[in-house]
Specification:
The chain is elongated, with a radius of gyration of 25 Å. Helix 2 runs antiparallel to helix 6, helix 7 packs antiparallel against helix 8 and helix 10 crosses helix 11. About 15% of the residues are buried. It is built from 11 helices and no strands. The protein has 2 domains: about 90 residues, no CATH class; about 90 residues. The chain is about 70% helix and about 0% strand. By secondary structure, it is mainly α. This is Reverse transcriptase domain-containing protein. Pfam families: Retrotrans_gag (PF03732). It comes from Tanacetum coccineum. One of its GO terms (molecular function) is RNA-directed DNA polymerase activity.
């Protein structure tokens, strides 16, 4: 409940009678405290959700790094990944596998496992907010590094948001400043790594040019 609806709810509350006389009306300070408590609870819940989301991203990244280094076969990825689950996540996996059997459960793809875990630990309302952020994500100033990190985080947490690699790269380039977007497109990068390297090189040129211009302006 947001602060405004909370205040509206408090205003609509009928007076509570403990005797023949009405209880004292709530003071403005009491109302403000209710609002503050509601806001604090909302922020705490949001922080917990973000902590789970970030933890999930890190687990995805670490697991995929192991896959890459060990040349893990596609059919073995889920078996390996679920073998590293602990606590609540392990309980969730056991509950998922029990009705169909562990062998059948291990036959799902790594992509499907990521989708299931994301749905479990990132509420749909949060996913919707992240999807909206993804579509509106752009480079702030010259901070390309932060943009890249957040772009990948959102892409991992919203696996259904971009259906193929080409669309992923198109979305990445679309969030670049206009000053370099056209040049990146003209370079026709074939991979995300190429697109990032080209964007970084162009951004470095802009930063260097701006620095020289600033120095000349102060002379």
């Amino acid at each position: 409940m947001d602060p405004y609806s909370m205040l509206s709810y408090v205003d609509r509350m009928p007076p509570k009678r403990t005797s023949t006389s009405a209880a004292p009306a709530m003071t403005q300070a009491a109302i403000q405290q209710l609002i503050a408590d509601g806001v604090a609870a909302a922020l705490e819940a949001q922080a917990a959700t973000m902590a789970r989301a970030v933890g999930l991203i890190r687990w995805f990244e670490r697991t995929e790094l192991v896959f890459s280094r060990s040349n893990c076969a596609e059919e073995n990825k889920v078996t390996f990944a679920t073998g590293t689950l602990t606590d609540d996540a392990l309980s969730w996996w056991n509950a998922y596998a029990q009705p169909i059997g562990i062998e059948q459960a291990n036959k799902i793809t790594w992509t499907e496992l990521k989708r299931l875990l994301t749905n479990k630990y990132c509420p749909q309302t949060k996913i919707k907010k992240m999807e909206d952020e993804f579509y509106g994500l752009t480079v702030k100033g010259n901070d390309l590094k932060t943009y890249i990190r957040r772009f990948y985080e959102l892409a991992v947490l919203c696996p259904n948001i971009v259906l193929n690699y080409e669309k992923l790269m198109e979305a990445f380039i679309g969030g670049l400043p206009q000053s370099i977007e056209g040049n990146v497109i003209a370079s026709k990068p074939q991979t995300m790594e190429e697109a990032i390297n080209i964007a970084q090189r162009l951004m470095d040129q802009i930063i260097k040019r701006d620095s020289v211009q600033e120095t000349n302006d102060h002379k």
